[in-house]
Design goal:
Helices cover 26% and strands 26% of the residues. By secondary structure, the chain is an alpha+beta fold. It has three domains: 194 residues, no CATH class; 152 residues, Neutral Protease, domain 2; 370 residues, Immunoglobulin-like, CATH 2.60.40. The strands form seven sheets. It has a seven-stranded mixed β-sheet with strand order 4-7-2-1-13-17-15. It has a six-stranded mixed β-sheet with strand order 16-19-20-21-23-22, sandwiched between helices. A four-stranded antiparallel β-sheet has the order 5-6-3-10, with no helix packed on it. The longest helix is centred in the middle third of the chain and has 22 residues.
Amino acid sequence: MKYFKTNCYILIVFLYTANTNAQVQQGHTNRNKFKQLYDQFATPNRYHNASGAPGVDYYQQKVDYKMDLELDDVSSKLYGEEVITYTNNSPDELPYLWLQLDQNIRKKDAPSLEKNGASNSVTVRPGSFVSNYAKDSFDGGFNIEWVKDANGNSLPYKINQTMMRVDLPRGIDPGEIFIFKIKWWYNINNHVDDGGRSGYEFFPEDGNKAYVIAQFFPRLCVYNDVEGWQNYQFWGNGEFALEFGDYQVNITVPSDHIMEATGRLQNPKEVLTRQEYRRFQASENSFDKPVIIVTEEEAKAKESSFSKKKSTWQFNAKNVRDFGFATSRKFIWDQQAVQVGPQKVMAVSLYPKEGNPLWEEYSTKAVVQTLKSYSKFTFDYPYPKAVSVHAKSQGMEYPMICWNYGRPDEDGTYSDRTKFGMISVIIHEVGHNYFPMIVNSDERQWGWMDEGLDTFMQYLTEQEFGETYPNSIGSLDVYPSRRGDPKKIVPYMSGNQDFISPIMSNPENVYQLGANAYAKPATALNILRETIMGRETFDHAFKTYSQRWMFKHPTPEDFFRTMEDASAIDLDWFWRGWFYTTDVVDIGVKNVTKYYFSDTPDLETKERLKAYGYDLDNLPEMVFKIDEENESYDPKIATANAIQDSEILKNYLTKEGLEVNNVPPKFFYEVEFVKPGGLVMPLIVEYSYADGSTERVTYPVQLWRKNEKSVRKVISSNKVLVGVTVDPDKVTADINTNNNSWPKKESPSEFDKFKAKIKG
């Protein structure tokens, strides 16, 4: 059609006029949203190649630990001695080793205690006042008694906040193994009162403590080709970068305690009663439901015993990056077997009576669902078990074990919020076994690489949990996921830009960590899967990334490149917009204009043709005219067939043996779409017609590549167009829905609704 040709002429004429009138021409860099991310990505090399896979020279260190630990339940102290075997697989000689001392964040003089500003608020809770001003602060942190080599010779070391450098008598050569030992102890914190990712909860009713212990031993930092030593200090938000290795751990506790930990229990007969051991064995072949190894009544009976005897639990773990354990005489214990690929995995729950009836009903179910769903989308779970431990106000993960909140009221009742919160946190924390416990990203630098990917997988798993256990969601249509649905990220993305950071930010330096590192990347991946790539293509690429980087250290570029490499979809525009900027989605429809064919253009049409560069003395045989009814077309007014005013066209159709009244299309419309927001996204449109029918069209994101502010589309139809809606299902996280419809509908945006809800 000639009309499409005029669009091109418009562009050329306007550009030419602008250049000829300019006095001085100013150049600019490439600002196109679709340019490649070469200026952001690290250069591919022999360690991390251009496809996003490990390169031919990729390496990582191996660190093995043998530990003897003893818990003093009376004074809440943990004593430990560890033997570390360090294998240098790098091409570099290492003159010293760096270790993480995460407990030092709890020292009285820790700089992390002063990292934030503070001012007096209008109100203060009595508990906060006592904690801040009336109570002695907790005195935590490692007490290092000695560091020695394998022969017992002292090794010099230097502690710098949460890092310890061990100086070696000579450098460790490539391929060499170095063995050394450390003896230490520390005061265990009350994580309910003093905070922290691990510690104990005290139960004043019975005088017991429930321990969830992690970051409890000096651990080697990562040494790799990306940063050398990853010895960024632990400030509290950025989590951990760790090496894989094998663990042999002996843990001595009061003999009436029940314990779970990373790795296989080596001596169940020695630490369990006969009845507990029989149930333990029976559970290993129970695939239908959990077997309760320690019942609630048995746990209650233990609460008053306070045995003076001791038992040593022995655990071995292969190819893990960390170790955690939980122990208490209060624990109820259940577990069941799950078939994951060729392997049998134990799904395990530990919880005090305060967690029931909620935990007995749902904890192990959530573990089972997580193992099944995550394995389907990534790789078969490779470890022998996954453990969920109940701990008040906790949500933290370690290989094979995690702590999770969700406590009923004292009378055993609980709200849907408590129930779904508990199920969700269990799915999330068990899911961390995949990211970052196996796909071992650098949490200290890139929080979103584990939290965002895990939250995305959590969303998929929650939806499958609702399908597997429909009674758990009651009258709800789907599981009420907190994060992942595009609509739910709108309040954050449309907020004050002074308090929003790009996803590609260190977790210590963002204002809203939950939205930044968890919700936004999870939402972005959900949109990528559902709206941009399609499920099948996305799932293949995501699984490729997961399997490429099992038990390895990926970078953000490895993820971005693999998703493109395995899908043949250029996504640089997506990574740039969603991960490297704080741009928002705002796409709308500006205007709809109706046209018809004519042999005799009116004055207005002549002016348009003249503006578009046509020679009025040599016009095309037919032209489009704006419908004279009104330029801003009113869909309520039905008009005649669009070709009725052109005798030339009717004669031509007759010559071709076509009946004019039966030749579609009858109507022509030009729809102008605008994009006030900075993010380019596919344009999803629903066209509505007078006969009640609708048509859904998705225009590719490349529609914006030449003009990211405004684009037009010509709609030819045999029906009268009465409505246009952009993003009808709200799947793109559009922050302003007031411009999404034509004729315009005065409806509050998602952000307006959110503000009204907060105000109310």
